[in-house]
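As a warm-up, study this chain.
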Amino acid sequence: MAGKLEGKVAIVTGASAGIGEATAIALAAEGAQVVIAARRSDRLDAVAQKITENGGKALPIVTDVTDETQVKNLVDKAIAAWGRVDILVNNAGIAVIGEIDGGNTANWRRMIDINVLGVLYATHSVLPILKAQNSGHIVNISSVAGRTARAGIGIYNATKWGVNGFSEALRQEVYQHNIRVTIIEPGLVDTEINDLIDDPIAKQRSEERRKTVTPLESEDIAAAIVYAVTQPPRVNVNEILIRPTQQGW
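Now compare it with the structure written out below.
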């Protein structure tokens, strides 16, 4: 049987691990041709191999989403290879948490560059294509932190609230072109995202919180994304908030 996304082309950023990897695999399993982007070429190639070994189609392209030229190159190569783009999953992101007072401002800039500007660059590059096709779907990975502020993660909050605001404004701009926009807001997920925390107090607090719940798996988020992008064209799932059952905040 043909998958629900047969003939569709999807771009997934941050696809070398975690949610991005799981999403690329899940979209390919539904028949999509997936263009997978990340900075780590060896891990990107490994994901592509997993997909092709299972009968899917994957095109790995090393991309730093903070570099607008590289992002445009990613989209251009997707078009050159497969002639269209139907789905963009803006997944690349980092979380370097810690209190604002005494915070590492270099980490703030990294988060803003990846979590916000990376989303803007990729969206900006695909929009003319989606408008010309009069169809498409942009999925932005946000977070529970995009709707609930908490002391100790203020800059991460700022980036994810930015993604949420941008996504809703984008939806209002493009809906008449039959372009759908979805925000995915995960709670705690068992991924590498917290590995970059260099503030020892923030790292300890994060680890203690994680011990209180059974976190989501990357595949849980991928399943939510597949649900959103496989709805009938008349249905735009604007927002999916998904927490572990045991997460109370």
